[in-house]
Amino acid sequence: MKIYINGKFYDKDNAKVSVFDHGLLYGDGVFEGIRSYNCRVFKLNEHIDRLFESAHSIMLKIPLTKEQLIKAVLSTLKANKLDNAYIRLVVTRGIGDLGLDPRKCDQGSVIIIIADKMALYPEKLYRQGLVIVTVPTVRNLPEALNPQIKSLNYLNNILAKIEAANAGCDEAIMLDSLGYVAECTGDNIFVVKNGHLYTPPQCMGTLRGITRDSILEIARKNKISAHEHVITRHEVYISDECFLTGTAAEVIPVVKVDGRVIGQGKPGKLTLSLMKKFKELTAKDGVKY
Ligand code: PXG
Predict the structure, then answer these.
(1) Residues 160 and 49 in one domain
(2) Domain range holding 96?
(3) Given 2, 43, 150, 161, which residue is catalytic?
(4) Which helix (H) or strand (E) holds 91?
């Protein structure tokens, strides 16, 4: 495995960052999780754009242009000789002192990790569906730490993940501060009711996921009516189908929420069809390397 750190490749054992890096000390930095399929990076430009937006919002200067970063990703993929890969792009604030002042950090650090496998959930759950639970930890308030910023501080989501595990469930639904369904810990949520697709809007506590956008794009192309609309827990409980989306998760069905069986208690028809269409899209779309 070859890991890119600031323009150089390192083996796994030698890929290290300083203990004074503010990414470690404060979670001060941004990241993206990206996938490649058949030597094509899916939605690479969208991920790079979102990384730069996250960085811009926290006033972190990425020491590469978008074009240079894309080249770095593609060359790291080539160095790792993998046709299908999971790519973790990390930009930290860099090395500073033990105070949190980011002005003390000299330069942002760019890290690109390539993995051959990244399974968020066991394979069998893609056939059986997830059992999930609404957790007490609400999603970060946008006026405090906007969920659109994919920052290195994921404690909000990690707390929710711990609460889901404590409840014996596969994943957590996080609500926003108004009590509407926001998203899961690393995925967006969709419900199906009477043939219509619904997903929460990107305001409040919901990340505008790139997989979520791909599903909305597939829906538009296939004349499936899709809405970005606030969703309550009740609307999830009475939905015909439910599924989650994310780069790591891809598209995965949900069959039980807070003890309520969803639809027929098995992956729904529209969900299965969208899973298939998403697979077809990832197999042919993307930036070649
Ligand atoms: N919501 C949150 C909070 C996320 O972190 C998504 C939704 C889905 O977004 P995309 O753009 O990927 O469709 C994410 C993405 C991980 C991991 O290590 C998490 C994500 C992506 C990759 C890896 O758990 N989250």
Answers:
(1) no
(2) 2-115
(3) 150
(4) strand 85-92
